[in-house]
Amino acid sequence: MMKKKEETANRPDNTAFTQQRLPAWQPMLSAGIVIPGFVLIGMAFIGIGVALFITSRNIQVLERDYTGDESNSPCNTCTHSSPDCNCVLNFTLSKLFEGPVFFYYGLSNYYQNYRRYGVSRDDSQLSGDVAYFKNPDSNCAPYRVDSKSVPIVPCGSIANSMFNDTFRLYHIVNGKEMEVPFDGKGIAWWTDYNVKFRNPSLVNGTLKAAFDGTVKPINWPKPAYELDPTDSSNNGFLNQDFLVWMRAAALPDFRKLYRRITQGDYAAGLPAGNYSLKITYNYPVLSFGGRKKIVLSNVSWMGGKNQFLGIAYLVIGSLCIVMSMVMLIVYAKFKFPDDGS
Amino acid sequence: MTIPKDIPEKWFPIVLPLKRKKQEGLNADKERRERTEEERRVRANDREYNEKFQYANNCIMTSKYNIITFLPVNLFEQFQEVANTYFLFLLILQLIPQISSLSWFTTIVPLVLVLSITAVKDATDDYFRHKSDNQVNNRQSQVLIHGILQKEKWMNVRVGDIIKLENNQFVAADLLLLSSSEPHGLCYIETAELDGETNMKVRQSLSVTSELGDPNNLAQFDGEVICEPPNNKLDRFCGTLYWRESKYSLSNQNMLLRGCVLRNTESCYGLVIFAGPDTKLMQNSGRTKFKRTSIDRLMNTLVLWIFGFLVCMGVILAIGNAVWEKEVGSLFQSYLPWDPPVDNFLFSAFLAFWSYVIILNTVVPISLYVSVEVIRLGHSYFINWDRRMYCQRRNTPAEARTTTLNEELGQVEYIFSDKTGTLTQNIMTFNKCSINGHAYGEVIDTLGAQPKRGQPLDFSFNPLADPDFCFYDQSLLDSVKLGEPLVHQFFRLLSLCHTVMSEEKSEGELVYKAQSPDEGALVTAARNFGFVFRSRTPSTVTVQELGRPVTYTLLAILDFNNIRKRMSVIVRNPEGKIRLYCKGADTLLFERLHPCNQDLMNVTSDHLNEYAGDGLRTLALAYRDLSEQQWEDWAELLRSAERATDFREDRLAAVYEEIEQDMMLLGATAIEDKLQEGVPETIAILSLANIKIWVLTGDKQETAVNIGYSCKMLTDDMTEVFHISGHTVQSVREDLRRARERMMESARSRDGGKEEGMEGWGEGCSLGNGFGVGGVGGGADWQPQREEKQQGSVPPPGPPSTLLDSIAGEYALVISGHSLAHALEADMEQEFLDTACACKAVICCRVTPLQKALVVELVKKHKKAVTLAIGDGANDVSMIKSAHIGVGISGQEGIQAVLASDYSFSQFRFLQRLLLVHGRWSYLRMCRFLCYFFYKNFAFTMVHFWFGFFCGFSAQTVYDQYFITLYNIVYTSLPVLAMGIFDQDVPEQRSLEYPKLYEPGQLNLLFNKREFFICIAQGIYTSVVLFFVPYGVLSQASRNDGIPLADYQTFAVTVATSLVIVVSVQIALDTGYWTAINHFFVWGSLGAYFTILFAMHSNILFSIFPNQFCFAGSAQNTLGQPVVWLTIALATVVCIVPVLAFRFLKLDLKPQLSDTVRYTQLVRQKKRKPGGRGGRGASGGVGGLGGGALGRLGRAGSRRSGYAFAHQEGFGELITSGKNMRLSSLALATFASRHSASWIDTLRKKKQQAAQPGGESSPAAAPAAPLSTSSSLLGPQEATAEEAAHTPLGPACSNAVTPTLARSPGGDSIGGWAVNLGAVQEALFGWRGVGARISGASSPGPPPIAEESSLTE
């Protein structure tokens, strides 16, 4: 027995693994799987595509450019003048704009996704870490400290370039302007508001004191703790507009949620009629060829208007069906020799 | 001895010059020292004197590091590799904030991983090198120090020491033989380790030193040797010994080289001349060339191309950046001012270039190299683990000694094989014989109609029989027993006509020392049939003929040489009759027969053909009776020829020729040069796999051709076998040209037919070659047309460049060493190669180790084909090293070949498994792996390129940096590794059944530049989809709470998730063999992706490192959106559906053989479930190939000489001079010659001694008695045998049972019937009881024993 063991001491183990005999599923692209598979995918895609397309068509969108570079544009005057220029944009809804309605502002040719722009922020600072108030991250340069070497809070290009046009929408009922109430709560990500951005702990009960020893970003008219004079809790880093702006866009044409219209008479939507939008025109975009617009939109179960998705699903679904036909023909013609005889 | 193989892990070819330079640097010191050493002076027993010269000592060091130097040296080496330096460079780039588009850890994590894996591997390798060095260096040897023999380790042996070697010991260093225990200072060595020749060689010491027998004298020896400096010429040594004011010249004949083994010599003393690295063995071993696979080379080219591509993209994006900065960026400065160092758009573009180089470098990720290594390692382990490549007998598993060549095993086109020990076992067995027109040896079972071997004959009647000898034909033994005179004559010839030396350690224990194994086989056969060659002196040969010693006077040995192809002896038998016995090649012998032999010659020649057809090595035997006068006359001629000084050889040959005339044919022998198991089958399968096999052997042409036939490399169905053995350049060239013309002719004449054939075949082609193969196997009809069809159906890589490539017939080329020398000259090599490559089989005989390597190099150089060399001996080392893949046969004594090899196993037949199963799979897996790998990285990386156009060419990454870091090492590495390691397209037995499945590898179809571009294109397509589908969807989309989805982090997560899903689906498609591991890895990778994604985006991590994990919350916000999932689904389908459709259509329209096989397999599996084995798949036919087809192939018989004589000339002279006789036997010789007249007395004395135990001896031998008794006795004996056959034991054991049964009726002590009859012989000859039986059986006819024994009275 012992000897036998010795004789075969070097014999490899006889396991399925070492002998490469592991039980395995060996799929093959047989016609029985592929063709029905294609039909199935095609059907499913067409179904989803139709649903998406119809849903998307029912979503109403209203877009108005207010850059003001054309001379007939209502905001043309504001393009040259000093800040806090007001202009009015009028539009008419021919039918009810179903609620809830979302009010967006949009920027074009604006590179929030530029690498250096994107990193020019200090998340530690924005999460309320006071240590970074005194010494902001180097990525914030050149908006890290001001000319007197006082740290800027919030630092960085993104914060510095925060969008600061403001809008007020009026419904003109019988010649009278009725302000449409805007809801500015919860327009940012829940996680941004609750996790990522935190105000520094209050010093002497005020936010202002917490920001002591810092200066506001160069472009800002007011410091962070005074962003919303109407609502003290909407100040500092937790200001909703600030949060929305800080969530950088992926593409150079983007829109950001400004307000929801969910309250009062307008909870069900904007009734047909004339509206005027009063814009405080602060934000210069013409210098770099950018454009500004406002967008009014409502949403469905699958989000905002999205023609692309529906059409793409329809196209791909149909292509799958066509492919399955082609494959069926090919298969029938050059039948795989099943039986070998 | 041990030269561990250097297994460097090199990744880039560029590294090699560096590496080489370094090695040169290291060697330079050594070389310088050697250059200064113009001659070597060694004084024996004088270490102080010798130390002056600082010769290398006997310590061998092949390891590279020690514990302290390991880290710095290894790191230094690793950073010499371009890949590592490249990544280091990237790392440095990333530390520049203006450039850094990625965090430093995206590069450093993989880099550290790679460096440490390689370091661990290097350390392990070096550890084993240390171990084997130590083992060799610590071997013991006996050194003479101050007159006393002391045990010393090998490494402590110094130049100038005198060491003692004992029998079967390895020679420790290159020694000058001083003295030996054998007479005349002779000693025998086996040089298999050095040159692979298995026959023994004689070395002789100078006569002056051979007298210094004992250690005391040797300790006084103070001779000085002045000789050439160390070199690698194995067969040359030139030096002078100065001793006692005289000069003695030394030659290779006096040297024992390291690596040899001392044989048949009790002990000997030698003076160390070269030690350690200076020995010829080590000088020959050289450094292992680093081998890389063709995939490696291709990969390196591709990687360089990709670098080019990378630079192009960098440039494009940098230009884009310049334009953007000028047009947009400069105006956008109110929001995003340029960094202080960036003052204009051009500089910004310059920085953008480097930033993009960093981002896009993932097209060639460092993990590619690691993964390739891991996969190869896995494949190597599978080879090591393969039980079907494990040899039970030798207890050796297969071993992949190199882990870098596996996939090349799937691309082999040429195999260069050694013969002895590789194809054959180097065991000769006496298999068949033809005596006087009667063929013996073939036992045909009449029922089975197939030759079936029964039980081997029982030779127990003969106490001197060799127990290992097997013979199966009872009738031959019966003939011997019946005393047929010609049968006796036949065996007498075999026992007399040879140059074998015998050694009788103790009474009856004979050991033959044959110079060639076939001679040994013949003498052993004679021995077992009762003609035992017992001993020889220079002038006598003593043979125990059927138990009776007879001493013949050896008058002359007409030695063998290559031209004569025969040897003869002239002996005088005790009656004084002179007879010449001759054995040799039938062609030559038949010419010299007496005319009256014509009929016998015809019969014998038929037998010879039959034997040759079976691949046996044959010899014809003849004798001639000489009258005293004839002998005297001839002896006079011989003496004068021997005295001649000029043309002595020629004169001798002429004299020999004169006496070898008018001979009487006795018969022929057939020796089987035992093939290794399964050699013909392996060769047949390999050649079906379109692998060309060349046999390169040091053996003679006849032997080699014979083996060629017996292992079915050459068949009689071959159109023609060309023999090239010219000695001059002209004749070789002429021969080659003629061969080529012959081939061209037939090709041309066949071309017409071929075209016609092709028209009819046209349709069939498209259906693939699977059925062609099935047909070939099934039908087993090797018609040339069939061959052509095959060739037609396999899409050739291009039109045949010359007519030679299109030759379809089967040709073979046999070329001898000296012709090869001419053929390998620069001006003829092309011609030779063209001719040889057009042949199906090539046999090169009498080639030197160097020529072996040259042939391999030649094919390597001119054919873009993968070569594999397989061998077992040290003479194959050069060939093994120079071929792309070297395979060593392990388990034999020599380990040189194994050490130099890349793979080793112990049986030639494992080669088919290594190539067709492991190689094929490795190649397939590696190709699939590479295709997928390039695909996935292009899909991953190119997204950045597209994004560049939307982010101001700012080198913004699309993904989170952690995703970039982990993509290649976590999210996508394991599934593709699992595929690369475990994938199988068809089960292993199918790849042996359909050797044609091997072809894609040879044609390089699975991964080449075209396939690469397809993968790249697919990758780029995927990247386009992956970028633009989310772009199209997300730019407009918003969540159902109105928040837009177009923010950067959502986009990043969407693209990354789509990417991971798409590449996972793709790997799922690519995987053909889903084991649990694959499932685990694929699903596990997806799971890991999501787990890590959520972890990285979790609140907790963010709260700890807010700046590092700024994606907090992205995962949950993004992946909670149905739109995102719809986007991912859309992207996946758009990426995968075209691939799916393409693959399906390809499978239907242009199925590969593997697809077909896989499909049939699938169908068969399905069918098997309902009822039995349905459908005779194509495999059924091929399956039969192993048996039926091969069996059939062997049967044909053409006129062919199978001449078996593997030895060198010169031994005859050695014997007659008595030089190689032991002192004991010499004493006997002198005794015998002194009492030549009364040698009978001696014999009688011996007999009486032998008779003592047998009890009372009765000298009254009755020569006539056996004649009468035997027949009556045979009756019962046969009957018992019959009975035995019917006993429950069955017929198979009848032979074994017979003797015991036969003896039982007589009684216990000595068989009753045997006593009456055999007592006399028993007493007389000292045979034991059984002996009687045979003597009785052999007595009919005029028994020569009887004659001779009567003479003794």
Description:
The complex is a heterodimer of chains A (341) and B (1353). Helices cover 28% and strands 18% of the residues of chain A. Chain A contains 10 helices and 10 strands. A 4-stranded antiparallel β-sheet of chain A has the order 1-10-4-7. In chain A, strands 2-9-5-6 form a 4-stranded antiparallel β-sheet, with no helix packed on it. Chain A has a two-stranded antiparallel sheet with strand order 3-8. The radius of gyration of chain A is 30 Å and the shape is extended. By secondary structure, chain B is α+β, with helices and mostly antiparallel strands. In chain B, helix 22 crosses helix 26 (829-838), helix 30 packs antiparallel against helix 36 (1048-1070) and helix 46 (1239-1251) packs across helix 49 (1312-1325). Chain B has 51 helices and 33 strands. At the A-B interface, helix 2, helix 3, helix 4, helix 7 and strand 7 of A face helix 12, helix 35, helix 36, helix 37 and helix 38 of B.
Q: Compute the number of strand runs of chain B.
A: 33
Rg calculated over all Cα atoms of chain B: 39 Å
Q: pLDDT under 50 segments of chain A (min length 5)?
A: none
- CA-to-CA gap between the ends of chain A? 52 Å
**N- to C-terminal distance of chain B:** 59 Å
Coarse shape of chain A: extended
Q: What class would the helix/strand composition of chain A place it in?
A: alpha+beta
- Total helical elements of chain A: 10
Q: Give the oligomeric state.
A: heterodimer
Q: State the helical fraction of chain B.
A: 40-55%
The residue-averaged pLDDT of chain B reads: 76
Spatial strand arrangement across the major sheet of chain B: 14-33-32-31-15-27-30-29-28
**Content of β-strand of chain A:** 15-25%
Structural class of chain B: alpha+beta
Identify low-pLDDT runs of chain B. 1-34, 445-452, 753-803, 1171-1199, 1223-1247, 1250-1353
**SS element count, helices of chain B:** 51
